[in-house]
Specification:
The complex is a heterodimer of chains A (632) and B (222). Chain A is mainly alpha-helical and 632 residues long. Chain A is 69% helix and 2% strand. The longest helix of chain A is centred in the middle third of the chain and has 50 residues, at 312-361. Chain B has helices at residues 2-16, 31-35, 44-59, 98-107, 109-115, 142-174, 177-187, 199-203, 215-218, and strands spanning 25-29, 72-75, 82-87, 123-125, 192-193, 196-197. The chains are: A mainly alpha (632), B alpha+beta (222). Chain A: It comes from Ursus maritimus (Polar bear).
Chain lengths: 632, 222
């Protein structure tokens, strides 16, 4: 029978006494339910399960925070103290219920995402498949970030840092033109790292330096997933804890930087008018959604290894709280560094203006300071009006607020803003190495979760795992992804990366989670699921979860979906930011038709799995019913 | 008569050194920016030193070895501190061409800067671009060295893990098969409900129900 081949079923404890965990040789400690709740909280296995889950999530959340997955990035937190209100509300209303739902489904069905949804209803096997497809897309493009982190890490061992100074031009009389117009950190990112082309149509060649780093990144990922989930569990301890250490070090350093208080004040001053803006709520919902890694199937896979009597409600609440706390903690660090960078830029801008005025009017050196600048400007404007009007166009208006508000999105945040701040710190090599090492840990942690989501169905299926050993399957997956990832090392690679980053996971995940929620509540039946959970864990389901699952969360996801679609329809065509080497800044361009086609393909490939598999199952069932007459 | 001659000489001097005059260069110093508290005041002695440095630079040019300090003229000293200078020929009738002065100053820029404890940004010669220090390029870029080290370590670790995995599998296949079988059975996770494996139920199509005991087993054997 076809169904027997698909997913292996872990023996369930429902109605039976005998069961064994998936990893042989590790007998499950008996967990006393009810009286031993405190004891169960301290069970080493419990802690280990939570650590693995938390490791997977913290990596996801902090990288999302560093705006890799979330479309809006740090802009969210730029809303300041007023952002915390929608953030916390969305966490309680959307994050925790959906996380609990996925964990509960995994723990109850005791299979990976494909098998779990097929158990819920034979027509819904496509949901798991869609999750796997999304995970596949994600793992294809995500590792290039690790490659870039490796590149910067290797370049951090030089004095001075290569992004701190501009290279010289040909006759050594000045600096390279592109570097002068942009800043040295932008030049290093766009020219030296990416060697970016002016538009997505000019593909260029594969750059060998990022390609080498990509190969290394995939080798490291292969090393971690080689032996399967046992070694992955141990690696996750490391990749989850180390970023916290580095964040703490950075917190101490960040708070002692000059100008850090400006950034923190900016972050924590509530902008109450933003609360009325629906965009803030949408951003909060999106941020929570992606930072918890919902819809990838990895949560279901993780939970399937749990013992049936495991208290996944407690896990869900604690882990989502830790996650959000990590995000806020990381944002404090980022904003203090952001404040330092903004203050530094503001002061250099002021110094440039002072120099300009001192030279133009031959004032005494040191006479103009930041404190008397405005006064003297006024005096000069009145005393020498024509000369002043000559100088006026060259004088930039320096404003600390505008420096703080310069929004950087996407990978630019991690690589441009932080490197710019780091180059101005003392002992910048040390801070640079620490920061990129942390970025690597987070990235590799995320990759482990993604590849686990792809590998679990592959190693579970008897067809493939009987022919090839585990190492060969992992090797093949890594190799295929590496070859596809070479596309992102071309000169136009960053544009394709942005396409994948913005469209491969966002809409599909929303739809997948929506279908999941509806499937559990209405197809499987909320009452049936509730009784299953009660029999499994011995704990009744609170009315709050039921209300959220059945009503609020699906409505929220539908509204997010509607918002994104309407946004796309209103703006007409999709646009992207291209780097113009002549001007030294980003310009907006339209996507060519074939890029739009690929975007559509990305979104459709994962979404269409659900109706196609449902249709396929329906057709095969009809055929079977037609073929075999009912047995008397 | 003497007064007239003197007047003429100073007039010519004044003509030679003027802002935007031919072959004149503007110099700008930012002493307080560079030295902060240790800034020295710009007076005539410092000017003398400057003239000496320029004359020294000119003496290094072939055909100009006879330049004296008195041939260097300064004018329009402002509070900034900025001034203009020209270098005249020994007869003090005309100024030396700008190209020569430019190349001379560029050659000796470092020594002029050091004499005043300043650098290229704080002692500016407008219209004389400074030669920037060439970047020190090591023969092998540092990042490739570190990359190769990490690459080799990772490859060795991968090889070790693969080899140990193969060895483990060989050892397992050589080991006792009965233990393996039972473990395999459990690993293949036969669904067990109430102590009866579910597989036989499905394969036999429900024709024989093992849940019901057969006649001989009902009574315990004696």
């Amino acid at each position: 029978m076809a169904e027997a081949e698909s997913d292996t079923v872990r023996p369930s404890a429902v109605g039976g006494q005998l069961w064994r965990g998936r990893t042989p040789g590790r007998p499950a400690p008996s967990i006393m339910v009810g009286t031993g709740e405190v004891a169960s909280a301290l069970e080493p296995k419990d802690l280990e399960r939570m650590m693995e889950l938390e490791g997977h999530l913290s990596a996801a959340s902090t990288t999302v925070f560093l705006s890799h997955k979330s479309p809006q990035g740090l802009l969210n937190l730029a809303g300041g103290g007023s952002f915390l209100v929608p953030y916390v509300i969305m966490l309680i209303v959307e994050g925790m219920p959906l996380l609990y739902l996925e964990l509960a489904v995994g723990q109850r069905m005791r299979q990976g995402s494909i098998g779990a949804w097929r158990t819920v209803s034979p027509y819904l096997g496509g949901v798991g498949l869609a999750s796997v497809v999304v995970s596949f897309f994600l793992s294809t493009y995500y590792n290039i970030i690790n490659a870039w982190a490796f590149w910067y890490l290797f370049h951090s061992f030089q004095e001075p840092l290569p992004w701190a100074v501009c290279p010289l031009n040909d006759n050594r009389t000045g600096y390279d033109e592109e570097c002068e117009k942009a800043s040295s950190t932008q030049y290093f990112w766009y020219r030296k790292t990416l060697n970016i082309s002016p538009s997505i149509q000019d593909s260029g060649r594969v750059q060998w330096e990022p390609a080498l780093c990509l190969v290394l990144a995939w080798l490291v990922v292969y090393l971690c997933i080689l032996r399967g989930t046992e070694t992955t569990g141990k690696v996750v301890y490391f990749t989850a804890l180390l970023p916290y250490c580095v964040l703490i070090i950075y917190l101490v350093r960040g708070l002692t930087l000059h100008g850090a208080t400006n950034g923190l004040a900016y972050m924590f001053t509530p902008k109450l008018e933003q609360l009325g803006n629906p965009k803030a709520w949408i951003n909060a919902a999106t941020q929570i959604f992606f930072s918890l890694g919902l819809g990838f199937g990895s949560l279901i896979a993780f939970a399937s290894y749990n013992e049936p009597s495991n208290n996944c409600q407690k896990h869900a609440v604690i882990v989502s709280l830790i996650n959000s706390a990590t995000s806020i903690f990381a944002s404090i660090v980022t904003f203090s560094i952001y404040g330092f960078k903004a203050t530094f830029n503001y002061e250099s801008c002021l110094n440039k203006v002072i120099l300009l005025l001192t030279n133009a009017f031959d004032l005494e050196d040191g006479f103009l300071t930041t404190s008397n600048l405005e006064q003297v400007k006024g005096y000069l404007a009145s005393a020498f009006p024509d000369k002043y009007s000559e100088v006026l166009p060259q004088m930039k208006n320096c404003s600390l607020q505008s420096e703080l508000a310069t929004a950087v999105q996407g990978t630019g945040l991690s690589f441009i803003v932080y490197t710019e701040a780091i180059k101005n710190m003392e002992v910048s090599q040390l801070w640079s190495v620490l920061y990129f090492f942390m970025l690597l840990m987070l990235g590799i942690g995320s990759m482990l979760g993604n590849t686990a989501a792809i590998l679990t169905p592959l190693t579970d299926s008897k067809v493939i795992s009987s022919h090839l050993p585990k190492e060969a399957i992992s090797g093949l997956v890594c190799f295929v992804n590496c070859v596809i990832g070479l596309v992102f090392t071309m000169e136009s690679g960053n544009y394709w990366f942005d396409i994948f980053n913005d469209y491969a996971a966002t809409l599909s995940l929303l739809l997948i989670v929506l279908v999941e929620t509806i499937a559990v509540c209405y197809v499987y039946g909320l009452r049936r699921f509730e009784s299953d959970l009660k029999a499994m864990t011995g704990r009744a389901l609170s009315w709050y979860w039921k209300a959220m699952w059945a009503g609020v969360s699906p409505l929220l996801i539908v509204s997010l979906f509607v918002f994104y679609l309407s946004d796309y329809i209103l703006t007409g065509t999709l646009q992207y930011q291209a780097w113009d080497a002549v001007q030294g800044q980003l310009v907006t361009k339209d996507y060519p038709p074939y890029a739009l086609a690929i975007i559509g393909l990305l979104v459709a490939a994962s979404i269409m799995c659900i109706p196609l598999v449902a249709l396929g199952t329906f057709v095969t069932r009809c055929l079977k019913r037609g073929d075999t007459p009912p047995v008397a | 008569m003497l007064c007239l001659l003197f007047f003429l000489v100073t007039a010519i001097h004044a003509e030679l050194c003027q802002p935007d005059a031919e072959n004149a260069f503007k110099v700008r110093l930012s002493i307080r920016t560079a030295l902060g508290d240790k800034a020295y005041a710009w007076d005539t002695n410092e000017e003398y030193l400057f003239k000496a440095m320029v004359a020294f630079s000119m003496r290094k040019v072939p055909n100009r070895e006879t330049t004296e300090i008195s041939h260097v003229l300064l004018c329009n000293v402002t509070q900034r501190v900025s001034f203009w200078f020209v270098v005249t020929d020994p007869s003090k009738n005309y100024t030396l061409p700008a190209v020569e002065i430019q190349s001379a100053i560029r050659m000796n820029r470092n020594r002029i800067n050091n004499a005043f404890f300043l650098n290229d940004q704080t002692l500016e010669f407008l219209k004389i671009p400074s030669t920037l220090a060439p970047p020190t390029d090591p023969s092998v870029p540092i990042w490739i060295i570190i990359f190769s080290v990490i690459f080799c370590i990772v490859i060795v670790a991968v090889m070790l893990l693969i080899l140990s995995g193969i060895r483990q599998r060989r050892r397992k296949s050589k080991g006792p098969s009965e233990v393996d079988d039972t473990e395999d059975k459990c690993e293949n996770m036969i669904t067990i409900e109430n102590g009866i494996p579910c597989d036989p139920l499905t394969t036999k199509g429900g024709h024989i129900n093992d849940a019901f005991m057969t006649e001989d087993e009902r009574l315990t054997p004696l």
